[in-house]
Amino acid sequence: MSETVLSDAQMSMVLPLKPFQGFEDVYQGAEGTVPIAFPGTLDPEAGKEGFAAGLLAGIPVPLGGRLLIMIPMPIHALGDPSANYAYQFVFRIRNQRDVNRKIEAGLQPSAYHLPSEQLGRRLTESMGGTKLFFIPGASDVEAFEQTEPASGAASVNVVQQRYVPKITAPWVQPLTPDGSSGVWQQGVYDRSDATNPSGPTFAPIFLDALGDELLILCYKVDGATWDFNSEGADASFSDTFGNGSGALEYNPNIGILISTGVQGS
Question: Does residue 4 sit within a domain?
Answer without folding.
Answer: no
